[in-house]
Amino acid sequence: MILDASVLVAHLDGGDAHHERAVNLLLEAVQEEFRASPITLAEVLTGPARTGALDRARAALAAIGVRSTGMDDDAPEKLAVIRAATGLKMPDCCVVLAAEEEASELATFDDRLAAAARVRGIQVRN
Known about the structure:
mainly alpha; three-stranded parallel beta sheet; two-stranded parallel ribbon; 7 helices; 8% strand
């Protein structure tokens, strides 16, 4: 399962409005392999990096088994096509590309991202 930043941030932040929702989503999918694009992981780790909690956040991601997806040499072209077709911001395009490349379900709480992913034939859990 490809995880969007909205799910990972909510999981890491007990005060996030979607925290319980994220925890439940991840528990329901505990048998699946959790992956995220490098850009998504950078987004998720930016806040903890600002507050000196980077090691704790990285350990929390590792504890649930989140691994980074790779990006092929043709990723720039694929991302450009996704962005042109969807109008999504580049980080969200990276999530869509990761789900397409991994032929994987996508977990997100972002309605716009979910809608664009569904149009592209990606199964979405939110």
